[in-house]
Amino acid sequence: MLTKYKETVAPGLKEKFQYANVHQIPRIQKVVLNSCFGNADDRKSATEIVLEDIAIITGQRPVPTVAKKAISNFKLRAGDTIGARVTLRGRNMWEFLDRFINVAIPTIRDFRGVSYKSFDGRGNYTIGINDHSIFPEIELDKVRRTIGFDITIVTSANTNDEARELLALLGMPFRKPAGRAEGEAAQAA
Fold first, then answer.
1. In this structure, are residues 167 and 125 in contact, taking their beta carbons and an 8 Å threshold?
2. CATH (domain of 74)
3. Are 86 and 51 in contact (CB under 8 A)?
């Protein structure tokens, strides 16, 4: 994936957006996985399962996240473990992105593409995954709890359009916007 970025994506972005300097070309800085299981009845076993499965998926040990304050309606005390998070950079990041885009996403049932709107205005993209069993590292017969998590791809792009083009050139399967598909068909005719 890194060689694809260097050989095809970076030159394509430089040509499309007319960057004067190679340091202006957007790149992926980090990938953050965040999972929350705050409403689990048995938080202790949920913590172990989530930490173990995220470590298997990413190849890196996640950090447990804890509640900052107590909320009685949720039966939550300050200091309770309510989730896990891992930040991937460098080789682990590129390896994870390659597996996510080329192996995991195509195994999602009834998949029509990821949303092209999930950008935050500063070039970062977030996608939610409901079931962690789409990853090939997870053995289906050993799944004890279904885990969902958010994947945030942090880029150095200044705008959403630059980040969208970066991810599209890397192979992210974006869903076509409803208005564009009809407009393109009309132009072709």
1. yes
2. 3.30.1440.10
3. no
Nearest C-alpha neighbor of 63 from the set 86, 79, 45: 86
| Domain presence at residue 165 | yes
Number of domains in the chain: 1
Asked if 95 contacts 1 with a C-beta cutoff of 8 angstroms, the reply is yes
> Has residue 11 been placed in a domain?
no
Per the structure, the complete domain to which residue 181 belongs is given by: 26-188
SS3 54: helix
For the entire predicted model, the pTM comes to 0.83
Classify residue 14: in a domain, yes or no: no
pLDDT (tens, 9 = 90+) of the chain, 189 residues, equals 888 888 898 898 889 989 888 889 999 999 999 988 766 567 777 788 888 888 988 989 999 888 888 888 777 788 888 889 999 999 999 999 998 998 888 888 778 888 888 888 888 999 988 888 888 888 777 777 788 889 999 999 988 899 989 998 998 888 877 655 444 544 444
Give the angle 102-35-115 at the CA atoms, nearest 5°.
45
